[in-house]
Amino acid sequence: MIQIGDSASLSKTFTEKDVLAFAEISGDQNPVHLDADFAASTPFKKQLVHGMLTAGLISAVLGMKLPGPGSIYLKQELNFKAPVFFGDTITATVTVTKAREDKPIVTLKTVCTNQDEVVVIEGEAVLLIQR
Amino acid sequence: MIQIGDSASLSKTFTEKDVLAFAEISGDQNPVHLDADFAASTPFKKQLVHGMLTAGLISAVLGMKLPGPGSIYLKQELNFKAPVFFGDTITATVTVTKAREDKPIVTLKTVCTNQDEVVVIEGEAVLLIQR
After folding, report:
1. Chain A interface mutation, best of B16, B26, B54, highest count of A Cβ atoms under 10 Å
2. Stretch (H or E) spanning B33
């Protein structure tokens, strides 16, 4: 039984290989991700991991741990607070904030931090769960 | 110069291969995506394309077309309205709803539809753009 305050995390180090694979399957070839020379001209100076790829780690902890297998996304809000660079180790943590009694629907706070404990994404997810 | 009402689209057919690649790079191995037998026991009966993979097409149209190369995500809200199955052709359309004059920041409505013109994702994006 899922309870308010339940929490789970998952960590992953994002590599250039991951970024190239995501660019391929999503079609997002934005040079801020793929082109070192272009990236050097941006405020962040270095190539960025796609925000939606980093957000995939939130999807992973939701789908694998809490609420876990069988859960289906209804909503995800993503606030991108800081850049993610190649080689950064990101930890996605999800915490249950609401569990409806009338329907199998839960709301979770979703936060991604890097290896320096800087918040890179914060937001909220709503999922339909298996009972 | 980006103006309110500007719009762009991108389409892609999502395959099982895309889903397997996204499961690999994100770590999201939820059986609703990967296991046909498990999926048969869910309300949708068939394996689903990851919501965050479908949302990658929004990232692609934002990063490639409008606002285009160099733009960086500040926020994305995703409301998952209908399932995406293997073989579905999704069109992501983004439309500028707000362009700040004081800062290089734009807001866009983001909608994904399938080949039957059913809305599968709707939401809003905020991006920092290159000027």
Report:
1. B26
2. helix B31-34
Q: Residue B109: left (phi > 0), alpha (psi -120 to 50), or beta?
A: beta
- The owner of tokens 């859960």 is A71
The string of pLDDT tens digits covering residues B70-124 is: 999 999 999 999 999 999 999 999 999 999 999 999 999 999 999 999 999 999 9
Options 3.40.50.12780, 3.10.129.10, 3.40.50.300, 3.20.20.140; CATH for A7-128 is: 3.10.129.10
- What ipTM goes with this model? 0.95
What pLDDT, on the 0 to 100 scale, is given for residue B117?
98
Q: Which residues of B touch A76 (CB under 8 A)?
A: 51-52, 55, 77-78, 80
CB A60 within 8 A of CB A92: yes
Question: φ and ψ at B41, to 5 degrees?
Answer: -90, 0
Inter-residue contact A122 to A79 (CB < 8 Å): yes
pTM (2 decimals)?
A: 0.96
What single-letter amino acid sits at B87? Answer: G
Compute the nearest-CA separation of B95 from chain A (Å).
18
Using an 8 Å CB-CB cutoff, list chain B residues near A77. 75-78
CA distance A53 to B22: 9
